[in-house]
Known about the structure:
3 strands, alpha+beta, about 20% strand
Amino acid sequence: xxxxxxxxxxxxxxxxxxxxxxxxxxxxxxxxxxxxxxxxxxxxxxxxxxxxxxxxxxxxxxxxxxxxxxxxxxxxxxxxxxxxxxxxxxxxxxxx
Length: 96
């Protein structure tokens, strides 16, 4: 293992941690995000589920989505409405 791999090991572990929250809610949100994954991948991006906390879905934007000016529009104009339509308990979406 190189010195860089050792240095970044902590970052990799924390980024790939399983989503926090009620397992049934995490699974339901994960299924919907999986359906939407091609939309983000087409532009070189990815949306990762971090947690479901009290009806709030917490997402992390990766790849081209991280820092993109259109990412907020994608999250609040596409992802959030789909989640709220199919999962009535969703209050909203936040990003980290």
